[in-house]
């Protein structure tokens, strides 16, 4: 059976807590020169959704052009911080091992559904050498839409176009937003309680499988691949 595994990044594979606040604050100053008054809630959100809320909350135009300017500022900040990212965050326990393990399975393709911009996604994983086993070309990224389920749709369509049809699709993330996006398209959803939400909250949101973390590689691999046969 061929399986597509779509990973969330922040607080699922890596933890860069605090960096989003700093990048958004500095991007706001760079784009429009005003101080921070409001910071949106980040978990499970897409970059396009966050940018629109952020700009609106500061009384600023949130047209596509302005949002793209904001994205450019975020990208510049990530480029600036790229050499220091290993010291600014950490890979979550078990993340390197499970990515490497799934990469040994000929019938598994790994990509992303993440609220991050594509370049931020690449840098965040590259910092901890997690990028080798991910097909970035077919991911669903936060620049695409304010709605996370549209990121899942994009990732599935691009994955199928490149690799052929899959028997199962598994969406993995740490928030109810990740779960809801997967459920919207009938995928198997796996909640990982390594972020701001408890295992109980992820179960309540509809996750088919809930994991405390990614530390037990064989058990996680079995859960991800067996869950696709539900």
What does this structure look like?
The protein has ten helices and eight strands. It is globular and about 50 Å long. The protein is α/β, with parallel strands linked by helices and 230 residues long. Helix 1 (19-32) crosses helix 3, helix 5 crosses helix 10 and helix 7 crosses helix 8 (176-184).
SSE map:
Layout: E1 3-7, E2 14-15, H1 19-32, H2 47-57, H3 64-81, H4 85-88, E3 90-91, H5 95-103, E4 108-114, H6 118-126, E5 140-141, H7 148-163, E6 168-173, H8 176-184, E7 188-192, H9 199-204, E8 209-211, H10 217-227
Parallel strand pairs: 1-4, 1-6, 4-5, 6-7, 7-8
Antiparallel strand pairs: 2-3
Helix pairs in contact: 1-3, 5-10, 7-8
Question: What is this entry, summarized?
Answer:
The protein folds into 2 domains: 3-16 and 89-227, Rossmann fold (3-Layer(aba) Sandwich), CATH 3.40.50.1000; 19-85.
